[in-house]
């Protein structure tokens, strides 16, 4: 998994009815875009995450092309 600053990190709900959690990558702490990432959630809090198999990166340049 590789991300850049500004990409979205989507953590999919693991239980029926649980919503996805979407955050924005504000710092890439690994080498060459690899985890861990410092992310900011819509409510303003930040966390350091090492995404697992229930996560997806939405790259900012792909969002702009659509």
Word description of this protein:
The protein has a 5-stranded antiparallel beta sheet. The model has no long low-confidence stretch (mean pLDDT 89). Strand 3 and strand 4 form a beta hairpin. The protein starts with 7 loop residues before the first strand and ends with a helix. The chain is mainly beta. It contains 1 helix and 5 strands, in the order βββββα. The radius of gyration is 12 Å and the shape is globular. The protein has one helix spanning 60-65, and strands spanning 8-11, 21-28, 37-40, 46-49, 55-58.
Quick overview:
Helices cover 9% and strands 36% of the residues. It is built from one helix and five strands, in the order βββββα.
Q: What is the residue-averaged pLDDT?
A: 89
Summarize the amount of helix as a percent range: under 10%
Give the percentage of residues in beta strands.
Answer: 35-45%
**Helix/strand structural class:** mainly beta
* Order of helical and strand elements: EEEEEH
* Discrete helix count: 1
Give the biggest sheet: 5 strands, antiparallel
Which stretches are low in confidence, meaning pLDDT under 50 for 5 or more residues running? none
> Tell me, what's the shape?
globular
Straight-line distance between termini: 22 Å
